[in-house]
Amino acid sequence: MSGFDDEELFLSASSLAALQSFLVEQQAQKDKFDELEKKAQERFDATRAAEEEDEDEVTMELFKEDWQLSQFWYSNETSEWLSRRLLHNATNDTKIAVLSAPSAFAKLRTMFPPSLPNLKKNTYLLEYDPRFAVFGSQFLKYDFNEPTKLPAHLKHTFDIILLDPPFLSEECHLKSAMTARWLLKNDGSGQAIICTGAKMLEFVPRLYKNCKVTTYRPAHSGGLANDFRCFSTFETKEMKWEEE
Predict the structure, then answer these.
(1) Cross-strand pairs, 124
(2) At a CB cut-off of 8 Å and minimum separation 6, what does 158 contact?
């Protein structure tokens, strides 16, 4: 028998207070998620226009990083910088996909030009974490282990995609690239931005046509120590490839 079997465990008053505070905070966050998800479902069931009315209240402050899912949110500056690159040539018909980068997606949603009203409904977050279902019809449940298990009507319809594969493994990157090729237009016009650790410096360019590392260095709000890099299949005035 263990020495603990016949003994009662006691917590100090301060420990009990801290535990109670933590539980209250967790329940409050869960209640907020439940409320937002309910609203999103109600909006979806009514019309897509109604769905968009209250979504601006969803911010990344609601979501704590889940390290078991390898979640590390971008800094606000990085999220904004990436969003501007996604919007660099946008028209009212542009379709944008953000894969496994919810902090960039949340920022992007606040930056759509009023002159391009269709952009919001044509932008999707592909993400494994079900908490982000609060984004309603803009959220697509995504598991990189099933890279093309997505709605068939989306195949080869996207103009540009941002990817941040959740794990620094060749398997994860390969399957994420399969998803990108499945989503992007197959007429050669599709563009991709890939953010990942410098560990994948040699591997990533082999997965995408005309892909090179850029001079930009993504940063994370929690001060992630890993050396991160940004790759792209195109250049802009603000996003240049490193000189070889």
Answers:
(1) 97
(2) 95, 96, 97, 183, 184, 185, 190
* Token pair belonging to 85: 């690159």
Burial 232-243 (b: 16+ CB within 10 A, else e): bbbeeeebeeee
> What strands, in cross-sheet order, belong to the sheet with 191-197?
139-141, 123-127, 96-99, 160-163, 191-197, 228-232, 212-213
Q: What angle do CA 110, 43, 93 make, to 5 degrees?
A: 50
Two structure tokens written together for 66: 């889940």
Q: In the chain, which residues have pLDDT < 70?
A: 1-11, 15, 19, 44-57, 59-71, 223-225
Supply the DSSP string of 69-119, one letter for each residue.
GT--PBPHHHHHHHHHHHTTT--TT--EEEES-HHHHHHHTT---TT-TTT
CA–CA gap between residue 238 and residue 219 (Å, rounded)? 17
Q: Which amino acid is at 195?
A: C
pLDDT, tens digit, 9 for 90 and up, residues 105-142? 999 999 999 999 999 999 999 999 888 898 889 999 99
Q: Is 26 helix (H, G, I), strand (E, B) or coil?
A: helix
Report the C-alpha gap between 97 and 116 in whole angstroms: 16
Helix (H) or strand (E) holding 37: helix 13-46
The whole-angstrom separation of Cα 72 and Cα 164 is: 10
Contacts of 226 (CB under 8 A, 6+ apart): 197, 198, 199
Among candidates 194, 193, 223, 196, which has minimal Cα distance to 88? 193
Task: Give the pair of three-digit tokens for residue 188.
Answer: 């050669």
Which letter does DSSP use for residue 10 in this model?
-
Q: What is the token pair recorded at 195?
A: 């953010």
